[in-house]
Amino acid sequence: MPVPKKLLQIKNLQVTVDGKTILHDLSLNIEPGKVYALMGPNGSGKSTLSNTIMGHSKYHVEKGKILSRGVDITHESPDLRAQRGLFLSFQYPKSIPGVSMSNFLRAAYKAVKKKEIRVFDFNKLLKQKMEMLHIPKDFADRFVNEGFSGGEKKKAEILQALVLDPSVIIMDETDSGLDVDALKVVAAGVQQLRSPDKAVILITHYFRILQYLTPDVVYVLKHGHLVAEGGHELAKRIEKDGFDEFGKNLSDPHAAKKRALETTHTAMGIEMEEGKPESEESPFAVID
Ligand SMILES: Nc1ncnc2c1ncn2[C@@H]1O[C@H](COP(=O)(O)OP(=O)(O)OP(=O)(O)O)[C@@H](O)[C@H]1O
Ligand SMILES: [Mg+2]
Questions:
Q1: What domains can you pick out in the chain, each with its CATH number?
Q2: pLDDT tens across 257-271, in order?
Q3: pTM for this structure?
């Protein structure tokens, strides 16, 4: 079967949570074979976007569409989205007392793949994936995320992705809280999922994981708007200069406060520090 050019399309998405608009007219394309970095300051809407893609009931799509391989899934249930190969590793994984990792993962496998698998065969698959992530054997018998350290929870999320083998994997800050060795192991695990018919979306604040998993495309969100798009050099620039230069014209309470301060300072004859001028040969597009 030919691989469709676009695995996932976000078209003019406007999303509200508890009556508050969080994402505004957001459009992006996710193509097979590529690694994406989704960056942006705290509260810019990254987790909102990933939860909306997965169909979390708290997030309401007011306008726009989500297409998976050309099929409109905007109002599809989360389990159907998972069956279509979409996977989200959570920023804050939850624990499930009383349910072992192996039982949980086998149930998830059966639900997502829509096929039976014998315990023996599943345990073989699980063992192989656990070894890949350097996860100790006793993990399989422990309750899901219960008593796991922050880094172990993140590894458990990647383990789930390796077992389910999704076509679009979204990792919401899977790198935060990982020590350097665990980071390398997780990056190598994700690298296993990289293939010409799949896409990886890394939501991250840090440049470190991007050194091991070089993104093809970097998207920057600010105040729920897409404010920049570029190659991996954009991530490098953000690491150096932060997010200040993006989305200056967007209305948000902080910007409004800053503008009010600037006006006050100007009126008082105090000069505010000027922002850096945009480079003539900027390798990325700043979207205002
Ligand atoms: N129930 C809610 N009511 C009002 N605002 C909300 C609600 N849930 C989320 N928000 C707001 O939506 C915005 C986007 O949040 P989101 O979690 O998507 O940001 P993020 O980019 O993932 O941030 P971080 O980098 O800190 O994880 C924030 O300003 C947050 O306060
Ligand atoms: Mg978040």
A1: 35-56+73-271 (3.40.50.300)
A2: 444 444 444 444 444
A3: 0.85
Residue indicated by tokens 């070894």: 131
Q: Which amino acid, one-letter code, is at 44?
A: S
Token code pair at residue 228: 């920049």
Reference 34, options 216, 202, 207; nearest CA is 216
Residues in the chain: 288
Nearest CA to ligand 1 atom 16: 45
Cα 111 to the chain's mean position, in Å?
Answer: 23
Task: State which H helix or E strand residue 15 sits in.
Answer: strand 8-17
Q: Given the structure tokens 């599809």, which residue do they identify?
A: 76
* Ion ligand 2 nearby residues (CB, 5 A): 46-47, 91
For residue range 109-145, what is the model confidence (pLDDT) as tens digits? 999 999 999 999 999 999 999 998 889 999 999 999 8
Ligand 1 atom with minimal separation from the 221 CA = 21
- Contact between residue 12 and residue 61 where contact means Cβ atoms under 8 Å apart: no
